[in-house]
Amino acid sequence: MKQFELKFTEQNLERHMIFNPEETVTTRDEPKGYEGDLTVIGGHIYVVTHLYRVSARFLENPLSVVWYDEGFDSHDEYMAEIDRIYGIKNKPRKELYVHHLHRLPMRLRI
Question: Is residue 73 classed as helix, strand or coil in its secondary structure?
């Protein structure tokens, strides 16, 4: 078990905290942490419960529901954000990593 850092834009952090603060999902272009690793998001400690590698082609399918798990209002909104950050348009084989995180019942005190 190790601690790792996840960076969020203010808008993305707000979306995650409003949608489901207990369980959150984030897509990254590399694994940031592995199952059992810890991170702090918005002053709360989260543990990685699942990490899986997916292709951009997989994410293009609205049935993948990753967009919903990340708190987006639509699949199109999610894909636009992922393309803006990672430039996946016309790169169906680009690999991305979906991190599932669960908030622990303790808060970081600074």
Answer: coil
